[in-house]
Predict the structure.
Amino acid sequence: MSSDGTLVREALAGCGEAYGTLVHRWTGRVLALCHAKTGQADAAEDLAQETLVRGYVGLGSLEDVEKFGAWLCGIARRVCLDWLKSRRRSQVAFSEVAADWDPADSLAGPEEEVSSVEQKDEVEKLLSEMEGLPGPYREALMLYYYEEHTYRELAEVLGVSPATVNARLTKGRAILRRRLSATKK
Amino acid sequence: MRQTMDCEAYWNLISARLDGEIRPEEKAQLESHLPDCATCRAVSDAFVQQDQGLRQAFAPRSAAVRRVADAALRQLPGSRPSGGRRRSRVSLLVAGAAGFAAAWLVAFLSGLVEFPVSGERGASAPTGLALALAIDPVEVKRPGGAAWEKLAPGDLIPAGARLRTGPASLAELRGTDGSTIRLNRSTEILVVGPRRYELARGQWWSEVARGDTPFEVQLENAVVAALGTRFDIAHEDGDTVVRVLAGATRVSVEGSAHIIRGGEMARISPAGALTRRRIDSIALASGWVHELLVLKGEENDELAGRLEELLASIGRAKMSKLYEDEIRALGTSCVRPLLSYVRSTRSLARPGERAHAAHIACDLAPKSAIRELIQLLADHQGDVRAAAARALERLTGIDRGLSEEDWKGHDWQRCEAGYVEWLAWLARDKEKSATPP
């Protein structure tokens, strides 16, 4: 299997398939990161897609080709931060082009929407609670459960040690356990 | 019991064991601690249960990963990345449309049962909609025309045209903007203009791509505007039901706008009253499109993704049979994707789903799958081995003197001879096994 660095060089040399391989290799982690940052699966898909395209466009600016993954995840974080700051991204897909769309419509959080719907089942509640965890634990759990990467692979994305990945997963699970136990009482 | 620092350290080991990251010496340390610590045992049980729930919750996300990757690749402009230059969103959209057209041509040349869209390409094409795939004829009444005629694949559908499917027809339409529309049986639509439609009757499913103009579907007393991705509209019991499978839509009724998000449905009465509720099962909500997916071949990612979503939902007591029935209704078309899932590394973390996938695939496997079934006889999961053995007996009448319980058991020595005999049979009787395509 070619390394990320080899694929980046091939892509810069004009091999279209090389970047495609990188996309398939990294989309899971990018999407997990965007989901963790935004807490919204739908927005995360658009933001992840934008990240991958920006990665392609800016590939020539990557200084260390072997650090493609960490660089791409950095783009994802900035894209998500822009979205969180503005709160009116066209990544809430067609907002820019719907003539009479009111941005306030898309700012209604999921909790406002579900007040009028039926009770979530256990699995959906678990996912919802995970989306509400503190950032570092949410990121670690999302990255793990999207594609079940190793601690070493997660450490590369998060910029921490594998031991810290372990600790964050453990802490996240413990908080989830406590919160779910509290809601059952 | 008061949690001690030692216990918290053991919780890290519990996580590591769950994640397959525990070292042998740590595993021994943990296993000697657990019998003496009720707190840690409770944590271990809770983490395992939570892990199962999270795996089930995230199972559909694998389809999202594929979807995002495919969508990103379709948007990539040209074959060579540029260096350090930032592009505006508009230029990305235009470049994306050209990239999409190229990707479509490649897909056609690779032999998919689909047709390229003829006529003008690009995000600003006048209508951009054409028939890509159909079960039974689809008819069109062109603007100013009096009669219905059969719609030919690839012909652009002009603004003002009406389309209809018959009692046995299903159709998939593709737009040059990258959107996909599927029409169920006995459905009629009016193509008002680019990305603007009316649903006169029947059922509609769409996956909407970005475009320069809004994507809207006019209903009898409402308008559905796409704010992203997938939704299904049906007429049921006199009401109109909008199910949002992913993304969000804006449904405008009687002057009020309602945002309906992924996982939610809106039922609109003829009087214009809208009630909202959660969809019981997204995987089942648009199951009628499966017949079209089967036409695209067993290797298509959307079919594989839907099967994984259905598999992940089996085991929920209330609806297990419905999900399994939905998969079985696909017949032999589901065998190859299911066996691919069983062989994949991602299935290893979901032994229950994996065994279920093998069970269904083996029940339906045709003779062309014999080679793969024999390989499964050496699987690490007893349920998988037993399912494969049962299928081989069904297809060949041969059981090697071993029962299903033998294959399911832990005594491999008992089964090894049978496995070797099957391998020899395969080598000797190749003409009986029909090499898979």
